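so my prof wants the structure for this chain in the tokens format not the other one, which i didnt know existed until like an hour ago. anyway here's the sequence
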Amino acid sequence: MSAVAVPAAVMLPAPRRAVDNAVTVLPELFVAEASQWLSTSSGRIAGEGYSWMQAVHWVAGSGLYQPRRHRSHGPRSFGPTTVRVAQELAALSPCRPGIKYLMRRTGLSERSVEYHLAMLREAGLLAYVVRGTRVRGEAAQASEFARMVPLEFDVALGIRTAGEGTGRRMTGIAEAGRELMVKLAKKAGRKLRRPRAKTSAKALAVGSVEGSAESVSTAVSAGGRCTPMEGGSTGTSSAGSTSLPPESKLASGKSDCPTRKRSKAKVDGRRLNRVGRRYQLAQELTQELDWLRGCSVPRIAWVARTLADAGWSVTEVKAWLNLRGETGRVHRGSGLLAVLLAGAEKILDTPGKRADAVEQWRGAQEAARRHRIQQFRARAERFDGDWDAPTSRAVQRQVNEAFTAAFGPKPQQAAPEAEVPTDVSGVEDLEATEVALARTEARQRLMQGNSSLITVAVDAMGREAAEQLYGPDLVRRGLQLASGARSSLMTYGRW
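here's what i got, hopefully its the right format
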């Protein structure tokens, strides 16, 4: 036996371990959370899904990885369910599965899928490339994995590799590991199917006893088959108690068998039951209502379960919330929804009442839309003008005096020998508090990009008088802003 085959013979367990202390000889297969990344993994990247499934079947049959050694909950062993999850991952390129995708493909719950993905990472078969993110209010991003072949697999089968790090490639295999590799190849080529639901033997026994009791009283049950069955379980013949239908009814191609009404509510080709309708209503509520974005769909389904069972639609729920009143700041959406929906199915207990509530809600929506349009038009008419009147009474008085002086009747010309005193438009008559208020308002408007007060004062009273009123600094900044507004290289205004 070669030196490479010795560790392979020691590390490979038998299909059924007969010796209890065999586990102590085998090393434990477990990868810590810090080593579950591609940059820190000790394994090598599998070339394709087929070779990776050989490593998956080896881990499943070796018994080196026991999940209950590291946690007290979840699956007890690396079994067929984990292999079925691995089959779905082997078919993906790149390996970036979503939790809902694996739930739909395998029929498992969300918690079960998370358990089996964690087991594949702890066994060294998966490594994170990019870890998914879950941000409230945004769509969850799935994690991207790299399919890995553990180092223990190469050592156990005597596989020779070339290269370094996770990019190592297989170059050969020892003679002792060839037979096992052939078996693993056959297992990797087979596909595991989802197990079918089996009827228990006790239920079959009870059903057979009930069927034999009914066959004694009548050959064909009243609500059972529509066509007569020949050769019943009793010793008496049923030919005398049954009659064949006439040929006229058979020729029409129509069956007299009573058909059972089926529900038409389907999602993705599946008929919804009571729980499905709850989840459907919860999903629609989280999409339609802004303050429910990011909330847990199962929690919302539990909160709105009574309305979903009563046949409410998402439009009827929104109409009821409109009757309860608008919401402002929401801290916990599911809790607020539970308070607002309390007693709704008892108040609007008929489809007619719910239809009236929907009509009232739509009328309120239309009235709110028209009110927003009117507000927008009024705002546009108010802000699209050339000039806004000042709000300060002192400034309004000064502006009026300036307009009167500029556009009012001209005073009579004095005699040539008389000297006409210069007028500063009454700026000297203002008190210090009024001048401070005028300058404060002009400064606030300049911060908003509005220089109308200063430009009007300069045009009406002159720059010298405007500087006496507003100060040289504000007048200079206002004129600069007004000149920049006429340039194509400067853009400012309201959003």
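also thought this was worth mentioning. The chain has three domains: 5-189, 277-384, 393-407+424-485.
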